[in-house]
Specification:
Number of helices: 8
Shape: globular
Distance between the termini: 10 Å
């Protein structure tokens, strides 16, 4: 993917993030909008929850009323016409239903679903009764679903702790209705880092050494936002995924080291250019 260029009038691609707000600025809506900007995409948002959090963890979660979330999506879709969108933290079954209904009603395409369920600190970000609703209502609308190992296990009902299990989970998620799946293996017990992509036609695996760092807050949000940004710019899905994985690796390796806990990654890293 070439470096973002200044758009001509009327050509600026628009993307929508439907997710929670991170007061610490490293994940959620804040990470998504930073990522959209890095890719030269105009970011819009629908806030689903307000969280109190920093690099040490989440201390409070306040879901936004479902009718207000729907009103935000309606307002963006009716006027700004996003070319791609992503979801993150949805918190409750009611919000999952509301978001699924809005995506279908507005016929929004190029949808990347990040099934945010549990924070790295262990704080649950999706109510247990919403997990089945997520799989039943939202997953079939997704062009791509991007679970980590734990989320892939919750969605498929199978333990996912090896590369072979990641491949099986990706196949299972496509059978469940997703257009494609990217199972993220940044914390495999083997010590390596790997991501498995699967759609109806191909399987692709990215392998790399694991970077020994605590500065990984917001990686899942950033990855899904980067894929959505690539789709908004017209990239084919496999290419958008490849560029997003590279962007996140750059952002981790150049993390600014903020906070006393698991700090944010570097959204100034920028996507690679053709010469990289």
């Amino acid at each position: 993917m070439s470096a973002p260029r200044r758009p001509s009038p009327g050509s600026l691609p628009v993307a929508l993030t439907i997710a929670g707000s991170d007061s610490g600025g490293g994940a959620g809506i804040q990470a998504d909008l930073k990522t959209f900007h890095a890719f030269g995409v105009f970011g819009t948002s629908a806030v689903t929850a307000i969280t109190a959090q920093n690099t040490l963890g989440v201390t409070a979660v306040h879901p936004v009323p479902a009718e207000v979330v729907r009103a935000q999506i309606d307002a963006v879709a009716a006027d700004l016409h996003p070319r791609a969108l992503k979801t993150g933290m949805l918190a409750t079954a009611e919000l999952v239903d509301t978001v699924a209904e809005a995506i279908a009603a507005h016929q929004l395409r190029a949808f990347v679903m990040d099934p945010v369920m549990v924070a790295a600190s262990g704080h649950r970000l999706l109510e247990p009764d919403a997990e089945a609703t997520l799989a039943r209502r939202l997953l079939p609308l997704a062009a791509l679903v991007t679970p980590n190992l734990h989320e892939a296990g919750l969605l498929t009902g199978q333990e996912v702790a090896s590369l072979a299990a990641m491949k099986a989970a990706a196949r299972h998620l496509v059978k469940m209705g997703a257009g494609a799946a990217l199972v993220k293996g940044g914390h495999l017990p083997s010590g390596e880092a790997a991501d498995v992509f699967r759609d109806g036609n191909e399987e692709r695996i990215w392998r790399r050494p694991r970077i020994a760092t605590r500065q990984v807050h917001g990686t899942g949000c950033t990855l899904s936002a980067a894929v959505a940004a690539g789709l908004a710019r017209g990239a084919p899905l496999p290419r958008a995924v490849d560029t997003a994985i590279d962007f996140v690796a750059r952002a981790i390796s150049s993390a600014p080291g903020l906070g006393a806990g698991g700090g944010p990654i570097n959204h100034f890293a920028g996507p690679r250019t053709d010469g990289d």
